[in-house]
Design brief:
Layout: E1 7-9, E2 14-17, E3 24-25, H1 33-36, H2 51-77, H3 98-108, H4 120-127, H5 129-138
Antiparallel strand pairs: 1-2, 2-3
């Protein structure tokens, strides 16, 4: 298995990969995406013996790191103080208030509402599973495949 080049981390927040890549700055607010893509040395996947094993370990690492970050975020939300981490307000989203609905109904009337077909789960709740099977046989409902996904076979 080919190892990635080691990285050096310096106090100036400049990362230098031990390869032929030039050093680059990862200061906050930097806009150059080409430089940000160089945070790791490129891998030649043809040189990796068991690519499925590396893939599986990478997926497990991503899950571990996602859980780790979620744990830290939960601790911050509970009020724990962690050095250099702050909990700040998220992005604002717009919504129509109850008062706004009444005002808009008077001004826009029926234009305020759209007609939309109910979802498949709501339909199943209305008619039951037996009727859904009948609908499938008649072609009233159908199934579509989701995006392909990678699975790892046992050795």
């Amino acid at each position: 298995m080919v190892r990635q080049p080691e990285r050096e981390y310096r106090a100036s927040k400049t990362v230098v990969a031990k390869s032929n890549k030039k050093p680059f700055n990862i200061q906050k607010g930097e806009k150059n995406m080409e430089e940000k893509k160089l945070l790791y040395a490129p891998l030649d996947l043809d040189l990796i013996g068991d690519l499925a094993d590396v893939y599986e370990r990478a997926k497990n690492s991503i899950k571990y790191l996602t859980d780790f970050c979620g744990s830290i975020e939960a601790r911050l939300k509970k009020g724990e103080k962690i050095p250099r981490l702050l909990l700040v307000e998220g992005n604002r989203t717009r919504y129509i208030t109850d008062i706004g609905i009444k005002v808009l109904e008077k001004n826009l009337g029926e234009k305020l509402y759209t007609k939309k077909v109910i979802g498949i789960t709501e339909l199943e709740n209305l008619v039951g599973k037996d009727k859904m099977e009948e609908f499938a046989e008649l072609g009233v409902i159908d199934y579509k495949n989701g995006s392909p996904k990678v699975i790892i076979q046992n050795k």
